[in-house]
Specification:
2 domains, 333 residues, 26% strand, Rossmann fold, Dihydrodipicolinate Reductase, domain 2, 35% helix, alpha/beta, seven-stranded mixed beta sheet, 15 strands
Amino acid sequence: MIRFGIISYAHPHALRYVPTINNSPTAEVYAISGDGSNSNVAKREAQRFKAKFYENYENLLKDEKVDAVYIAIETYRHKEVAIRAAEEKKHILLEKPIALTLDDADEIIRAARKNDVKLMVPFNPRFTTPLMKVKDMIKAGEIGELEYIYTISEYVKPPIFLEGLDLSWFLDERKAGGGGFMDTAPHGIDSLLWLTESEPKRIYADIGSKIYGFPVDDIGIAVLEFKNGVVAVLNAGWGNPKGYSYGLEIKYHLMGKEGFFDIRTAYPDFTVYQDKAEKIYWERTDVENIVNLFIQSIIQNKDPPITGEDAKKNLAIVLAAYKSSKTRKCIYL
């Protein structure tokens, strides 16, 4: 049984990952710390899961019964917390992006390697059932050689629209590294790297505060040309209006020489109609797969499916997109 410590509820993903961890037959939520935003939520959740509550992560990491940590603290504190977790020999599931800078990412990776702990950063789309099936069909040659990918991955509502959580840090570039594009594009970029089995050689992007007037960007679009010839268009950010029925939206159109895949949604859903329409996802295999594969990597002592090096490569592409948008130039990678 892998005993998890949960470090912070600053990121709203904690509300989904923590119950999933606790429902795993090979893991339990053993301790929760109240660092960062939403410490009141962390304390409430500790009571819900009958877990130890620590006011700060240092005390949690000193607990020898903790085997692994899920870190959901604000991005600007990732390096600080992840390095300390590695030094205390805790395996690390670290929210995306891995860090604010490539140098910080390197320090996290080195700390994990030096202390022989697993490091994984969760990017969700590749673990959804439709994309896993599509990947198998691409490899089987069902649509011939892949040519183009158009994706919305992901559009979500701005985090500050979520009730009951203080997510104001998402609007502070110094803490989050960017806005809506930084928040959601890493998911799409990971899926493109995985689907193409290649790396981009150049990128052009337009990213900005287009909709809400936030002090950070809310949405962006990027065109990526991959070394194997595939061209992809990625749309990502806080593109869903407050009244829109989808809180999370993912779409993929993949064109090959002999066919076309059209993924309208990555999750099975139903619609609730009351004062407003709302899409409810009744299954999230992506989160379950991420948690289970991370746990397996610990138990079986093997690399997780997304390593720290993968997460750094992802961050490099995101930062290149921001550079392209700022300079209005194509960036070669």
